[in-house]
Design goal:
The protein is mainly α and 81 residues long. Helices cover 74% and strands 0% of the residues. The chain starts with a helix and ends in an 11-residue tail after the last helix. The protein binds zinc ion (ZN).
Length: 81
């Protein structure tokens, strides 16, 4: 599949959001081990990060689907390359 500028942009964003989420998981783990039970706000932050991760993933998938549609032009018959 061909990658365009938007692909790499979306991938970079997905990676950034993912890294951020992973850091939050470690942070939460540490807070729990430290016996910090006031994690209510933190859970909201994590939920938000999770939502961002999901939407970044979905956006990349949707974008790549549009590539697939473009890479199958009706004018070119398969096997004629
Ligand atoms: Zn693309």
């Amino acid at each position: 599949m061909e990658l365009c500028g938007e692909c790499s942009m979306l991938k970079q964003r997905l990676r950034r959001v993912n890294d951020h989420y992973v850091r939050l998981i470690f942070e939460q783990d540490r807070m729990t081990r430290d016996g910090n039970t006031r994690t209510g706000d933190f859970e909201n932050v994590m939920q938000e990060a999770q939502n961002r991760l999901i939407s970044a993933g979905l956006e990349l998938l949707a974008h790549q689907k549009s590539h697939e549609a473009l890479s199958r032009p009706k004018t070119r018959t398969a096997g004629q390359l």
